[in-house]
Specification:
The protein is of the alpha+beta class. It contains four helices and four strands. The chain has a four-stranded antiparallel sheet. The radius of gyration is 15 Å and the shape is globular. The two termini are 25 Å apart.
């Protein structure tokens, strides 16, 4: 089942952040990802607007997304966006409709 990599980020130092952004395409391709959106224009309709860059990737499976994130090459690349170059929230999630009373209850206790 497909999985998605959702990243919300804020670029602080564009020159240092670009060192990260330039390496990512080859890394994610190795793990079978398809870019659905990366750095495109967006409209903030809810939320505080803290993040100013968004990325949506599709992987063949959640395991492949996890393998990509934990890979040595991605971990090396991400060092370029740490330490003040940027900040990010990255979430990996499996595709599908999973809404039920049980999943909503679990979500409310998070």
């Amino acid at each position: 089942m497909s999985a998605y990599w959702l990243a919300r980020s804020r670029v602080i130092d564009p020159v240092r952040y670009m060192k990260y952004a330039e390496q990512v395409p080859a890394i994610i391709e190795k793990y079978g990802a398809r870019v659905l959106s990366r750095g495109a224009p967006f409209v903030q309709v809810e939320g505080d607007g803290h993040f100013t860059r968004f990325v949506l990737l599709e992987f063949p499976s959640l395991q492949q997304a996890l393998d990509c994130y934990h890979s040595p090459e991605y971990q090396r690349a991400r060092q370029h966006r740490l330490d003040g170059a940027g900040e990010a929230e990255i979430t990996l999630l499996e595709a599908g409709e999973f809404t039920s009373a049980m999943t909503l209850e679990r979500a409310s206790n998070a």
